[in-house]
Amino acid sequence: MTIQSPATDGESTLRLSWTNVAFFGAIHALALLAPWFFSWSALGAMIFMHWLFGSIGICLGYHRLLTHRSLQVPKWLEYILATLGALAMQGGPSFWVSGHRLHHLYTEDTEKDPYSAKRGFWWSHMLWIFYPKAEFFNRESYKKYAPDLEREPYYRWLDDNFLLLQIPLGILLYALGGWSWVIYGVFVRAVFLWHSTWLINSATHMSGYQTFSVEDNSRNLWWAAILTYGEGWHNNHHAYPNVAKAGLNWWEIDMTWWAIKFLEIVGLAKKVILPPAKAEAS
Predict the structure, then answer these.
(1) What is the pLDDT of residue 10?
(2) Which of 9, 22, 167, 282 has the fewest C-beta atoms under 10 angstroms from its C-beta?
């Protein structure tokens, strides 16, 4: 099955990856078992891991630290944060970082932005994964956008083995709470966190308000910011991509920034990049 590329007016096609469809379909199907395995403790574990792998792993580790270098932390802590990001099941660090750097380099370009919103909501949300372009998914192609990570053996190992991390995680969850914790902690958590993250690619380029004039359609979307611990203030982020703080108005809650501020207070985060004074609202 193929899909026409809107940027080339039918000249190029993208092939559906049945492997990706089967993988994501299986995880979604297993998440649907949740009603039969419900427990309040399992739900609590899922919410905790959504925050730990989402806010601390993806938003702080993969995004603000590794992609944009908005702060510096000791190398041992950087590796821990990257490992938490890998546990989110959104790819290894080099893959995730290179894709997001491309997104900022070529925002909404229908060929060069991996999840261009100009291709429509579902393309930017998840179809870009089901119809993978080689330059975004082939390591030899995308690694040039993350040379700082490719130089480090541990990050190369995470790129190759991030899925294997779910095995010890699943064993730990089973030991703590049985199958209900496995279903909620691995499968429900993965699906919820996938779609939370994907909403930043899709919804925040289509709905919300713009505080800053930028050359793309990035927007601030309050409910997406709640689901993603501050990432939904996407217009702010595109205006100042290397800044560690995404919520710039007092009402723009940014839980990931709270974590960064805590690390700074205890001396573990240094050279934290702040927004210019003119960007800080009351």
Answers:
(1) 43
(2) 282
Q: Tell which wins on pLDDT, 187 or 282.
A: 187
SS3 16: coil
Query: Which domain covers residue 249, as residue numbers?
Result: 2-279
Residues 92, 224, 272, 106, CA torsion sign: positive
How far apart (Å, rounded) are the C-alpha atoms in residues 134 and 114?
Answer: 10
The alpha carbon torsion through 222, 224, 228, 234 (nearest 10 deg) reads -70
* pLDDT tens-digit series, residues 97-116: 999 999 999 999 999 999 99
What crossing angle do the helices spanning 189-201 and 18-31 adopt, rounded to 10°?
A: 120
> What pLDDT, on a 0 to 100 scale, did the predictor assign at position 14?
83
pTM above 0.90, yes or no: yes
Least confident residue range of 5-9, 67-71, 152-156, 163-167: 5-9
Give the whole-angstrom CA distance, residue 67 versus residue 231. Answer: 14
Residue 96 has φ and ψ, to the nearest 5°, of -65, -45
**151 contact partners, CB below 8 Å, separation of at least 6:** none
Q: Buried b vs exposed e over 98-134: b needs ≥16 C-beta within 10 Å?
A: bbbbbbeeebbeeebbbbbbbbebebbbbbbbbbbbe
* Burial class of residue 213 (count of CB atoms within 10 Å of its CB; 0-12, 13-18, 19+): exposed
| Contact assessment for residue 124 and residue 103, using Cβ atoms and an 8 Å cutoff | no
Confidence of residue 8 (pLDDT cuts 50, 70, 90): very low
Asked if residues 208 and 219 have their Cβ atoms less than 8 Å apart, the reply is yes
Provide the number of structural domains found in the chain. Answer: 1
